[in-house]
C-alpha cells in the first residue's frame, strides 16, 4: 500500500493505493488472489482442463490461462464478442491467453447470457475426449474465490496499522465491482478481521440492485459453506455507488480517460479504462460533490487490468495527440 501525496492534495483526502496491480506481471491484478484458491481446488480434484469465461478483453480469462499453463492444465476460454463469425484479432489480454495455448471459444452476447449452456457443451466435449473438466465461474466470483479477498482484508489490516499515523481517523476502502467477488471477499474479510473501514464499491456494469443481490449471495454462501462467525446485512453493509457505468461495460468516455491520464502524469500510476479508471473517475466526481463523504482517508484498491489499456489505443491517441 502506498500513499500518494500529490493526488491527496488535489482530492483533499489522504489517498492510499493498494497495489494489487503488482501481484505479478502476467498474473497481475485481483483475479490471481481468487484463482489461488479456485485452482488449488481444481488440482485437488485432479482436473485436466479448466474452463472459464469473460468479455473480449477479460483480465480474469488471461490470468486463468497463464496460471493454468504454469500448473500444466489445459485451458478453454469462453469469450464474448459482438460477432463470433468474425472474431477479433488477438490483442492485449486475448493475445496473452492465446500465446500460452488456451483454446478460445468466441460466443455472442446472447449465448454469453446463457453461458451455463455453453459451459455444459464445452465441458461435455472434454469429458468425451477422456479429460476431466473444471468450470470456473465468471471472475472466479463465488464462495471459494472470495477467500482471495478475505485474505487481502487481513493484509490490508496490517498495511493500515503500519502506514496510518492516526488510526482513529475514518477510512474508506474503494474498490471496483465487475462480477462482485472482490467486493464480497473484502466485506467478509473486513467483518472477520474487524477492519476499521467502510467498504465502498463502484459498479462498472449492471446496476446497484443487481450487485446487492449478487454480492449478498456470494457472502451468504461463503458464510454458510465455511461456517464463518459473522453476519452480513445486504442493504446496510453492501455499499455501492451507482452512476459511473458511463457508456457501458468496456466503453470509455474522454472525461474518464482524462482523469486516468491525470493520475498517470501526477503519480506515474496507470489505471485501466474498463475497471479502475471508471472507479477513480467516480471517486473524483463524488469527492467534488462532497469532499467529506469518505472520511479522512481513502484506500483505493488498484485491481490491475493494464493489458486491457492497449485495446483503447485509438481513443488514447486522440487524447494524447493535440495540444501537448
Ligand atoms: C475483474 C476486475 C475487477 C472487478 O472485480 P470483480 O471481483 O469481478 O468484481 C476490477 N478490476 C479489474 C482490473 C478486473 O480485472
Describe this structure as you would to a colleague.
This protein is 47% helix and 15% strand. With 324 residues, it is an alpha/beta fold. The chain has a six-stranded mixed β-sheet with strand order 1-2-10-7-8-9. Strands 5-4-3-6 form a four-stranded parallel β-sheet, sandwiched between helices. Helix 3 links the parallel strand 3 and strand 4. Helix 3 runs parallel beside helix 4 (92-99) and helix 7 packs across helix 8. Bound molecules: pyridoxal-5'-phosphate (PLP). The site of pyridoxal-5'-phosphate (PLP) has 21 residues, from helix 3, strand 7 and helix 8.
Distance between the termini: 32 Å
Q: In DSSP terms, counting alpha (H) and pi (I) runs of 4 or more, how many helices? A: 14
Small-molecule binders here are: pyridoxal-5'-phosphate
How much of the sequence lies in strands comes to: 15-25%
Structural class: alpha/beta
The major pleated sheet works out as:
6 strands, mixed
Numbering strands along the chain, what is their spatial order in the largest sheet?
A: 1-2-10-7-8-9
Give the helix proportion (percent range): 40-55%
Mean pLDDT across every amino acid position: 97
H/E topology pattern: EHEHEHEHEHHEHEHEHHEHHEHH
Instruction: Give me the count of strands.
Output: 10
Shape: globular
The radius of gyration computed from the alpha-carbon positions, rounded to a whole number of angstroms, is 19 Å
The residue ranges in which pLDDT falls below 50 over 5 or more consecutive positions are: none
Amino acid at each position: 500500500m502506498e500513499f500518494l501525496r500529490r493526488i491527496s492534495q488535489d482530492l483533499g483526502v489522504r489517498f492510499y493505493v493498494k497495489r494489487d496491480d503488482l501481484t505479478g506481471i502476467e498474473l497481475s491484478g485481483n483475479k490471481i488472489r481468487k484463482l489461488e484458491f479456485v485452482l488449488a481446488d481444481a488440482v485437488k480434484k485432479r482436473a485436466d482442463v479448466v474452463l472459464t469465461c469473460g468479455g473480449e478483453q477479460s483480465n480474469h480469462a488471461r490470468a486463468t490461462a497463464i496460471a493454468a499453463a504454469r500448473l500444466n492444465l489445459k485451458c478453454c476460454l469462453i469469450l464474448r464478442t459482438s460477432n463470433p463469425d468474425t472474431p477479433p484479432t488477438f490483442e492485449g489480454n486475448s493475445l496473452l491467453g492465446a500465446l500460452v495455448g488456451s483454446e478460445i471459444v468466441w460466443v455472442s452476447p446472447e449465448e454469453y447470457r446463457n453461458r451455463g449452456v455453453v459451459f455444459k457443451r464445452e465441458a461435455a466435449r472434454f469429458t468425451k475426449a477422456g479429460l476431466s473438466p473444471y468450470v470456473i465461474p465468471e471472475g472466479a466470483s463465488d464462495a471459494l474465490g472470495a477467500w482471495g479477498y478475505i485474505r487481502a482484508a487481513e493484509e490490508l489490516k496490517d498495511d493500515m496499522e503500519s502506514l496510518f499515523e492516526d488510526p482513529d481517523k475514518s477510512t474508506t476502502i474503494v474498490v471496483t465491482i465487475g462480477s462482485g467477488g472482490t467486493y464480497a471477499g473484502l466485506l467478509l474479510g473486513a467483518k472477520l478481521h474487524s477492519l476499521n473501514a467502510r467498504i465502498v464499491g463502484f459498479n462498472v456494469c449492471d446496476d446497484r440492485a443487481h450487485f446487492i443481490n449478487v454480492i449478498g449471495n456470494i457472502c451468504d454462501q461463503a458464510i454458510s459453506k465455511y461456517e464463518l462467525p459473522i453476519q452480513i446485512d445486504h442493504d446496510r453493509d453492501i455499499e455501492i455507488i451507482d452512476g459511473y457505468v458511463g457508456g457501458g461495460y468496456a466503453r470509455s468516455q474522454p472525461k474518464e480517460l482524462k482523469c486516468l491520464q491525470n493520475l498517470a502524469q501526477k503519480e506515474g500510476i496507470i489505471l485501466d479504462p474498463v475497471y479502475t479508471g471508471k472507479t477513480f473517475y467516480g471517486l473524483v466526481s463524488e469527492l467534488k460533490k462532497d469532499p467529506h463523504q469518505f472520511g479522512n482517508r481513502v484506500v483505493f484498491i488498484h485491481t490491475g487490468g493494464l493489458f486491457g489499456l492497449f485495446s483503447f489505443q485509438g481513443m488514447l491517441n486522440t487524447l494524447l495527440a493535440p495540444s501537448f
